[in-house]
Amino acid sequence: MIEVENLSLTIHSTPVLQGVSFQIAPGQIVGLAGESGSGKSMTALAMMGLLPPGARATGAIRLVDRELLDLTERQLCAIRGRQIGMIFQEPMTALNPMQTIGAQVAETLVIHDAATRSEALEKARARLDRVGLPADRFPLTRYPHELSGGQRQRVCIAMAIALRPRLLIADEPTTALDVTTQARILDLLAGLVREEGMALMLITHDLAVLSGLAERVAVMQGGRIVEQGPTSAILRRPGHPYTRALIAAATHHPAPGTRAPGAALLEVREARRAYRPAGRGAFTRPAPVRAVDGVSFDLRRGECLGLVGESGSGKSTLARAILGLDPLQGGAIRLDGQRVAAGQPMPHDLRRRMQAVFQDPYGSFNPRHRVGRLIAEPFHLAGRPPDADDRVAEALRAVGLDPDDRNRFIHEFSGGQRQRIAIARALITRPDLIVLDEPVSALDVRVRAQILDLLADLRGRFGLSYLFIGHDLQVVRAIADRVMVMHAGRIVEQGAAEQVLHAPRHPYTRELLAAVPELPAPIA
Amino acid sequence: MLRYALSRLLSLGLSLLVASVVVFAVIEVIPGDPAAFMLGLNATPEAVAALRDDLGLTGSAGLRYLDWAGGMLRGDFGVSYTYRVPVAELLADRLWVSLPLAVYALALSTAIALPAGMWAAARRGGAADIGVMGATQLGIAVPNFWFAMLLVLLFAVNLRWFPAGGFPGWDGGVMAGLKALTLPAIALALPQAAILARVMRSALIETLGQDYIRSARAKGLTRAQAIRRHGVRNALIPVLTILGLQFSFLLAGAIIIENVFYLPGLGRLIFQAITQRDLIVVESVVMLLVFAVICVTFAVDIAYAAVDPRLRRR
Amino acid sequence: MSGRAQLIAGGGLSAAVLAAAALSLVWVPHDVTVLEIGQRLRPPGGAFPLGTDQYGRDLLSMLMVGARVSIAVALVAVGIGIALGVPLGLMAAANRGSWLDEVVMRLNDLIFAFPALVIAILITAVLGPSALNAILAIGIFNIPVFARVARGAALSLWTLDFVLAARLAGKGRLRISAEHILPNIAPLLIVQATIQFSLGILAEAGLSYVGLGAQPPTPSWGRMLAEAQTMIYTAPRLAVLPGLAIVLTVLGLNLLGDGLRDALDPRLRKAAR
Lengths: 524, 314, 273
Fold this sequence. Notes:
The structure holds 3 protein chains of 3 kinds. By secondary structure, chain B is an all-alpha fold. Chain B has 12 helices and no strands. Chain B has 2 domains: 1-87, no CATH class; 89-311, MetI-like fold (Orthogonal Bundle). Chain B is globular, with a radius of gyration of 24 Å. Chain C contains 10 helices and no strands. Chains in contact: A-B, A-C, B-C. The A-B interface holds A 48, 50, 73-74, 77-82, 85-88, 90, 93-99, 107-108, 111-112, 143, 145, 156, 159-160, 279-284 and B 3-4, 6-8, 10, 210-212, 214-223, 225, 229-230, 233-234, 307-310, 313. Chain B: One of its GO terms (molecular function) is dipeptide transmembrane transporter activity.
């Protein structure tokens, strides 16, 4: 039905796509997988005729029997939304904040002259019902800011399928969502394909998402399709080395720690913190939200303790309290017996023993300082030692970088290299505990595997203890000895990693596990 | 929405309160004895004492403030020392020149700037954009009172289309009044329009890069439809902010422009009052201007909520 | 106009005005404090390249000294705005949501309720007119401008992880503000300074036009225009030239600001490629 043939694309004469060819049949789900920058999204935008200025496409994109690359802008407008619909990655910003959801769904119908205004609203109602937003809780008069991310993505889907297009393109539709929400949105998409005879092109960086959902998969790297075929064949018997590397990285487990954990290093007792949600004005007083609600646990010396939770579970609030950055309203935190007075200035010696690595490899460094100065910043705590330069060099070597990198600026490094620098900065004070707050979430899967290996290696070499915080069970399971599951401010389950993941006791843990997409076992 | 409006209203009241204390302190407390100041160096002590009595300057500063503020709330601004008439009457007369002038100028500025800014944003990088941006660059650099003089030179002296100055009053008909205000309004409006057009353009360009514009295009909207139906309203928030600020600039700017065109507005009044050391009038005009600015800020806050549903908490 | 062209044109214009103002400190063609009625209203040419005004003063000399007055007033006013506004904005951002933040922001709102001209009127009503009034009035008005810009930019930086990293290195709010926040918002402040500088020139002209700025015999562009107004029928040159001087100065500064913004903002630099 849609056929992309030998599609090549340059943007300002930089090649972006080269010889991309694939087909999608009616009612078929095809996955387009690859890491960031592989050209997946550009392929989709070329099919929509929404390429950025300066782009030149050659080859062919045939929808039924029309050649899309030859159409005028006006003809393309008639095809977008009617023949091909599209949804995007970031549901929080994909809807106009000033317009009701009803108006935005109805607009698809009105624009294509498929209905009068009142008919369009009626149909919009039906489509919103279909995507799981019933009239009693989600009237047409709702505004996007009143909905959660998953609900907004449903509105986007309703908008895209309002006219029952032949093809729906979904560009990383669940990447910004929690894993349980992801599972529901994927179910919804699969159901729509089944019932409406629509074809779906699902773009994702996560091969596991495609397993059991897509009929066919095309794997992209550097603007080319390196391999395509039936999903189960590709995932079980990948032919191309790149696909094999992706799959290996996704299921990678670093070598486990060998030292037996010692006495309790970090003790958290009945930690509590409630927020008032942001609300301006003298008369509005929203109810407080219990972000951390009576959390207690021990982290033993030499241990890697995983903390898993979805967004809003309170895991980051807890991490910031442990690091002493934000205050608690109740409970106590002790590091090696010393009290951590969260939110108050901390004695430098205590501060030195606890460092952190954060999620965003781009915001973690002052762009105006050189790497050497960035890494040496924690020396502020104990005074700059006489061998400071040697220690910076040693830290850089420990994380697999060159000591000469200290003279470069941070923008000269890739995301993975930046996380290595962040780890070097955390190591420089020779701490006991490193809090890792989603340290690999922003990284591509192969780089992620490398960083996990590095963390496991450093832990053994320097006798470190980790509190590893993540939303991704796969990742946490790969590195943690013990796992805690956090939900709505409480630790609902904790235990040895294997036990929690294979024999979960709490219903929420079970739901979480069931939602995680898994790759099929490879065939040797 | 009601809660939002109430909380804004409360902050309006607070601002007025603090502003009035500041004005009162600057005019009546800091100079020491206002009566002596108003009469100048050659005044006899008896005359100063008499004036002090006249002005009600006998009590403590706190009591005098309460008296003054209470009077203003009832519309009683005191009696002008030089004109010997209630200040409220003076203000009312003059306001009928200054307020229409500011509104006229704001309307002109908006009518020119918003379409120009949208046009430039829609044709970003094209000839229209370069033309509009060049014109605004020049417009921002032109002082409005100088522009006013050039307008007089061209339209009043050479072409004789408009009067060079003066104001016939509204009794002679609305058209005659508007005609007298046209050159002053243009002089006020064009430099403001240049700023507003730039704000409109950059706000719209910012908006056009948002994800929801891409969503709209994926639905099949043309670029122009996406701009019209989704871009403009989202770009209005920064534009509203600037519009509010501009109204206060226009009121203040009118003070100067009234001097170019010899218009009997608040601006002329306040300068006459300064030269005659009529502090009561100065104080009242300043309070009136500040009141206007604060009210406009309130109106802008309410307009935000009308435009942006996220501010409309039930 | 491209960022580079703006930078060159704006820098050139600003430098020319600055040079004329600096030159007037040591040399002017004619003394501007001496009135020579015999030389009044000379057309341009000869000893008076731009002619003389109705009191026989050399217009070129007046413009040069006027440039000095304008620049001095605007510069000091911007200095006041930066010196008081930036620390206030930084402190407000460092203590977001605290009483300090609230007080700074409410003070800002309060000053914004008094347009610069109204502040000037208030000061003049009490102290009498002088160039100092203009400086104070424009300077006071600049404080909330810089406080707002600094606070807004600093707030977005405070959410970044490198601030957390600095806190983990034991650094306090003051030190983080000075070491991490200020250098990163400096480009924005520089751009804002050029904008406020050009607005200051305009405001000074307006104030001295209505007699609230520099007092005679010191010439200023605004008062030259006020004096030229009665002569507008007979010698339009007197009204046109000071106005052109203002326009070119402000235009130069604005172009410089735009050019600097493009040159200093890495985000824009990336987008331009």
